[in-house]
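Thread: quick sanity check before group meeting

JM: Hey all, I'm pulling together slides for Thursday and realized we never actually wrote out the predicted structure for the chain we discussed last week. Dropping the sequence here so it's in one place. If anyone has concerns about the input, flag it before I start.
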Amino acid sequence: MTRAAGMLLIHGAWQGAWAWDAWRAPICERGWLAHALDLPGNGADPARDAALDEITLDTYVDAVRGQLERFDGPCVIVAHSGAGVIASQVAEAVPERVAAIVYVAGMMLPSGMGYSELVEAASADVENASGIAPYLVWSDDGRVSRVPADAALDIFLHDCPPDAARRAASLLTPQAEGGRALVATLSAARFGRVPRVYVEATLDRSVLLPLQRRMQALVPGARVRTLECGHVPQLAQPDALARIVCETLAELGITHEDLSAARSVSSPRALNGTPT
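JM (edit): ok, ran it. Output follows.
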């Protein structure tokens, strides 16, 4: 039995820690200490972002490792969408700090492969494999993209509660391409020893189900669970996602520490499910 110190929640491209707001209550009700971070460059910390020359995978890995150090032991990383690449690289860097990775409609890619390469290889067989890409609006220098609200509602949030979907679409921020076109370098000895769970979303219009299943085949060994929902299960079906994640972690012998003894990793609000 592995007792994890908590969960670290990592958002995908164009998002922030707010992307996990609806999921905090159901996961904390199941006894987990959960903390969502804002990745560098997403606008949540202007002073921090102003000091960055560029955003890279290393930038993200350093930020996540800093948050992991605030837990008293190894924790479960829950990664949505493109954050899957970040979680994989963190597991490669510090496998002893990662009790498990949960990919939520995530990019669970093999070493050396970028998501665009996966899409290109599948495009002849998978209709609309490029997902959100055709809808992106780019800066003049091509280094930053943003997602128009109507595209976000159609591609990301089509099955979410309408008011929550509109709020989420309004909170999306510009994304530096250096932090979106990510390629991990992984090994069996480090990343490969970390237990993995893959939650596939059958109605996903961004990371389409055939692409999710290609990644599962390319990186075998994850426990796969299925939700009939779109790209954002933590907003569309937060209770169902919390249930299957906790049940699957328990099957893997991973449980949470007693919250009464756990140290808050951010503020007391991280314990009760309210946004940080």
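AS: nice. The domain at 2-130+182-272 is CATH 3.40.50.1820 (Rossmann fold). The longest strand covers residues 98-104.
JM: adding both to the slides.
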